[in-house]
Design a protein that fits this description.
This protein is 33% helix and 23% strand. The chain is α/β, with parallel strands linked by helices.
Amino acid sequence: MLKNKTVVLGITGGIAAYKAADIASKLTQAGARVETVMTESATKFITALTLRNVTGRPVVTDMYELASEYNEEHIALAEAADAVLIAPATANTIAKLAAGIADNMLGCVVLATKAPVIIAPAMNDIMYENSVTQENLAKLKARGFTIIEPEYGRLASGKMGRGRLPETSRIIEVIETVIGKKKDLKGKRIVVTAGGTREAIDPVRHIGNRSSGKMGYALAEAARDRGARVTLIAAPTSLPDPAGVETTHIESVEQMNKAVVKACAKADALIMAAAPADYRPANTADQKIKKGAEKLTLEMVKAPDILSEVKGDILKIGFSAETENLIENTKKKLQNKNCDLFVANDVTAAGSGFDVDTNKVTLIYKSGKVEDLPLMSKREVADRVLDRVVRLLAGRYENVADRWCEV
């Protein structure tokens, strides 16, 4: 898949820079042409000579010295790239890219390229978790950059934390996915829901749930990247609107229901990743309820079942968050809501709950097939689900159901 592809490898000044040699070597062995761009700080950790020997290509370390046959080097490299990989990416470089700063060759290449850009952060865990770094990564995600989340393990400081550069095999897998990604949803209209609804008690208080919306947003971004025209209907989250996605913000389950039914009138598929309320207060107080009585009783009524409300010739994918009897409970939902596929996860399992960037799901098909997927990032889960959506939309799911568990 990487044979004759050009990968621009950006290396920045972190201790994990030494691992870039292995990445460059493996890419070269896979048949890729690797063009290396190093920041000045990166040269303090690994030499250009090492990368040149590994790739057989000149290495760019100074934006004012031509190290290859390219004219206007930053433009030529940007145009030649099938993908740009920055590994490791320091907090400093991530901040520069988020701000559009191009004071070195790597920044110039990223600004000038139309190729997909893949960022592999590696740093101290406190720096990675800092709100500024997270905001900068969110900005890059919103612009369509692919972020490979760092791994948990022993850091250069000697402590354990999340900040390690992922294994080379994982990074190359992402590059292959990004370069080889087909626009297999081009021309399709996909509606995705995300987040947990808020059901008002009074003007101040509401009843809600712990959904972060991350899974739905990952699905919307992945569908966009595969060529779909995406409508995202989002309950309140802390996530920025995905670039290139039509986003409608709602609060209550009633509002989500109306927005979904309207959007689905012209859609090919609905992916219901949101967590709409099952029950809502029968009445909402006009004024704030004052604290006084020892007990407060709320009357709750059943909320609309959005998946059941959507009719017509549309593919329906549901999500099921469970704490027990995962398969049994999800199969009941699939039948009751007349869905084509349900994505089930046990929210009590490690790495599969709320406010995390990973998920472990089980796919349950209309045919009765059950497929367990390993723990992976929510973006990876999104692409796996969309692989199935493509096949379902092609109308071949009944014929290939027996082979899906091998995909």
